[in-house]
Amino acid sequence: MTTTRTLAASATALGGALALALIPAAGASAHVTASATSTAAGSHTVVTFSVPHGCEGSPTLVVDIDIPDTIASVTPTINPNWTVTKNMVDDRVDSVTYTAIGAGLADGYRDAFELSLQLPDGEAGDAVEFPVTQTCAEGTETWEGDEVPTVILSEATGAGHDHDHGAAAEHADEATASASTGSETGGDDLVARIIAITGVLVGVIGLIVGVTARRTQKAG
Fold this sequence. Notes:
alpha+beta
């Protein structure tokens, strides 16, 4: 009986320890993340940044998203609960800042911010990083390093090359059709000429036969 109780107590303690160990891990995973409608290198995409919580219970007031130098231009999506500002440096968007209207995003509630942009060229597996600074009513979270919101590039689709090949094939088809039409037209002209020449020859032969017949009648 004692052994059974001891095993039960040990199992309960182990379960509690596991639960406590999992709590920090779950909390650490709930950071600002980035997801893209397309990850192909060089493609146009919309990157969505998700903010799932505040700073240790404090509401979020400002979300500032740094834009990598490899991205030339950015078009932020309007969010009705936030004002948005494009911060320019040397004629390019260096960062995009969303500032809350009113009391801000309460802790435990999620909001999302969308940026339309063109991903840089690169190899599949390359990381495009967007450091984010989350400013709350009390405290600040900086999402960078191992926790930086990231888009991992996939292989370029080559859509532009496919379009070029399609256009070339279309031009080739047009040229072939034109050549075919020209050949048919040339054939029709040749037939018409043969018919005309044949008609002339028949007329000439008829004239010769007529003249010969008249001379024969006169001679007789």
